[in-house]
Please model this.
Amino acid sequence: MDFVLEIVQYFVNLGPAVMLPIVIFIVALCLGQSFGKSVKSGISIGIGFVGIGLVIGLMLNNLAPAAKAMSQNFGISMSLIDIGWPGSSPMTWASRIALVAIPVAIVVNIIMLLLKLTRVVNIDIWNIWHFAFTGAIVDIATGSYTLGIAAVAVHAAFAYKIGDWFAPVTEEYFGLEGIAMPHGTTGWFAPISVFVDGILDKIPFIRDIDINPKHLKNRFGLLFDPAIMGGIMGVIIGILAGYDVQKILSLGIQMAAVIVLMPVVVKYIMGGLIPVSEVARTKLQKKFKDSKFYIGLDCALLLGDPVVVTASLLFIPITILIAAIVPGNQILPFGDLPTIGFFIAMAVGVHKGNLFRTLITGSIVMFMTIWISNQMINFQTVLAANAGQLTNAADKVASLDQGGSPVTYIITQILNMTNVTGFAVIGGFYLLCVICTVIWSKKQYKALSNK
Amino acid sequence: MKKIIVACGGAVATSTVAADAIRELCAREGIAAEVVQTRIIEIENSLDGVDLVVTTMKITPDFDVPYVNGMPFLTGINKEATEKKILSYIKD
Model:
């Protein structure tokens, strides 16, 4: 293990913008891609890292001071900007866990398939970063690479089970037959929606409330455009920070730039991973092509549903409001806002498109997420520093996705207990939700086979 | 020059796979095309001059531009039929 670790550490020390291109180039060649394509994949991933460094720099240098000034003016504590998954995923890919996480997650999947513990054949290589994030945080918290890898395996196994449990919803509500979502974000909160559904079904009157709107999007569509949303947020924060007009307008443009440019640069990282995911997909599908299996895909596929779109729109202001009331919260939601739908998509399916119930589940989920991501600030800052994304030693970073995931939190706390009450409350509640889900899921499968 | 929008949830993961496949398809067929990735929520504000919209998820399109579901690029199932459908919209 030490020997492996030394090799991995040497590569990591090259810095992600150099290390990952080399690794991806070699891996792509080994997987049988042409020389030219392999070089291009490697360089593409390097471009992604340089790009995300620039965008995060823009954010830390301009938005963070404004958030700080705003917090001081109003005596609130939201002075850290949520970098969101577009910020977190590159840092994770740059960690010393990530390279090993892909094969580990695939091997765990194959073992579970062979032992008939899952029916999900996961071909969504990109989202292995969620499991790798857990591994990287455990690695940082405990200092143990082995425990980090073990955490990747545990999180992956759990995500595949989530894929199984919710496949009936994916099929029935979203109409995606033969597809499951073993996904880090949309996965973890789904059990909470099952719990909420069970409770609400028992309350008279409330159980009959069903709001199922589809046209809200058209009325507010323009506000929903990330560029416009970023600009408006920047202007509001600038005003609250007490800036003069010139600085307010600059902040608006900078915030719009950050939110629009983030996915633009991160997609180069995904582009570099394409050769790996192509080969993994064809090989896995050849081996497990029976109709008994579900193809595991990105939950981005759920984000086109009209109720999900409406709920995503509503949760932009709701999340900011929740952030203001979570005790001791230091994080200003930002990077995850344009894709807040990842947090609630599966809940919409579980609640059968009922917006009222989705709002309840989503509020619990966002409260939990924000509280947990506050607990993760120090770990995530180390992760960012290791990835070379912090130029100023005093800077701190946080993210709702994946820093706010209870799966990451629970695994980290088990291995490195720092907050017994927090662990007991989050762990106990989440376990309860998962138990409800297992029972509920059996019923869903039964109903599905009766049809 | 044809302009194609490829949209998914976050304009990063699945749309990159589909966009990559469509760029290769256009190169193979000798079609000059600009392939732009967006988030699904941005489609309606980005339709100017667009010849085709491809999404990696199922949507009910409420716009007039031709639309193709690009999920086969992710699963590999029915990929050829989807490619043919795309070509039928962008080939002159």
